[in-house]
Amino acid sequence: MYIRRDRSNLHFGRPARRRGSRMLLAFWAIAMLLVIGVIWRFNTVQEWVLSGVGAQPTPTLDAITQAQLGERAYLVGDIERAIVHYGEAVRLMPHDMDILFEYGRMLIYRSYAGRSYRFRAEQALGVATRAIEIDPNNARAQALFCLALLENGRPEEAIAAGLRAEQLAPDYAEARAYLSMAYRGAGRPNQAFQKADEAVQLDGNSLDARRALALGLAFVGQFDAAIQQYERAIQIHPRFDALYFELAVYYKAQDNYEAAIAAYDQVLAMEPDNVKAYTRKCETYFGMREDALAQEACEQAIQLDPTYPEAHRQLGMVRYTSRNYEGSIESFETCAQLQEEQGILLPEREQACYYLRGLAWALLARCDQAWPILQDALQMNPADNIKGFINEGLMLCVNYDDDYDISEIPTPVPTAVPPPEPIGVF
Asked: Could you tell me if 308 and 302 are in contact, meaning their C-beta atoms sit under 8 angstroms apart?
């Protein structure tokens, strides 16, 4: 006997009207189950409906969740977003030392983005000070205090905090890493290398320990070894852009400009709108005397962020050496104005935006403009070679007469790379 498997036999031999009643009853039961389900899952359904009309409710996340989101943002290289989440976590749990530490560290990492972000280091010092007030005997608090003091130009005080952190937790790799950086900031290379090496021995997977060792090696001129340590650090955190910026510095110290450009291109592959990377490419091409490529990179940086002083400074240097004095004055003036508006202290400003602007005015026989700018540049505590340029400009104005032909006056070539900056600001 052949049995049909493609049909139900539940109503076999029954009147058709009975099938309709049972189907109606089944539909009613399903509808009731849906109503019960909606009531039970009301919050989820409400969120789905509101999202459909563009009215998403704002969830309230706890401190741990915010901290986890901050860590996730950090791991993908979004330091600014990490700061937002860790800041909210600190607001919700203001006495949690682990969260305070990570928040302060993110602020410091963000300060490496350029002079315009130095305020983040100041904020980090405030966070570290608060951590010390909460628990002065906490090793993480003292370690953060060490790093924050260093990034605010106080290396000797940073050493004291680092030693205290090391005393409180002898096996804490980051404490020795930050102590190493503080010794470097104080100009003590042997101790910087020793503490960094100890940090790596304690934890070879610590990003800060590897970075400290790289900085310590580079401080004594061992650039190849420093580069190897940066490569190890990049393996630990391949999306932390500060590592590529610092690595590029030591490639350039070896005149390996192509490798430096490749490091900046790696940053741009991760962050296509990274203004600092374009600016550093401009500086590197300028050092190679590839002025057309340098100008292109600087203009791209300015297009992305017209308020970034370093990009205007470097574009001004390209224009200045091309004898486009009027264009260089425009760039340098914008650079100086932006730094003043952003509250950057006079000793920390881009000196080229002042002394080269004064020289450009002098070369255009506009000593009424050149003289006060060059005098201001002398107040910025410039290096001896820069003082020499400034004095040349002043003497040019003193000795000017109508017989001078500007085209016959040699243009002083500015330094391709700016003077050394605080640790982390490469």
From this structure: yes
Alpha helices per DSSP H over 254-343: 257-270, 275-287, 291-304, 309-321, 325-341
3-class secondary structure, 285: helix
Q: What are phi and psi of 141, to 5 degrees?
A: -65, -45
Concatenated DSSP letters of 349-381: S-THHHHHHHHHHHHTT-HHHHHHHHHHHHTT-
What's the gap between Cα 417 and its chain centre? 19
Determine the Cα–Cα distance for residues 162 and 296; give it in Å rounded to an integer: 44
* Residue 412 identity (one-letter amino acid): P
Q: Which helix (H) or strand (E) holds 110?
A: helix 97-111
Tokens 């003590």 -> residue: 188
205-240 in b/e burial notation, b at 16+ Cβ within 10 A?
A: ebbbbbbbbbbbbbbeebbeebbebbebbbebbebb
Distances (CA, A) of 24 to 15, 21, 31, 140, 304: 15, 5, 11, 68, 65
Q: What angle do CA 316, 317, 321 make, to 5 degrees?
A: 115
Asked whether 240 and 78 are in contact (CB, 8 A), the reply is: no
- Asked whether the beta carbons of 200 and 213 are under 8 A apart, the reply is yes
Length, in residues, of the chain: 426
One digit per residue, the tens of pLDDT, for the chain of length 426 reads 333 333 333 332 333 444 444 554 455 555 555 544 544 444 444 444 334 444 454 567 999 999 999 999 999 999 999 999 999 999 999 999 999 999 999 999 999 998 889 999 999 999 999 999 999 999 999 999 999 999 999 999 999 999 999 999 999 999 999 999 999 999 999 999 999 999 999 999 999 999 999 999 999 999 999 999 999 999 999 999 999 999 999 999 999 999 999 999 999 999 999 999 999 999 999 999 999 999 999 999 999 999 999 999 999 999 999 999 999 999 999 999 999 998 888 888 899 999 999 999 999 999 999 999 999 999 898 999 999 999 999 998 988 755 545 454 445 555 544 433 434 446
Distance spanning both ends of the chain, measured CA to CA? 87
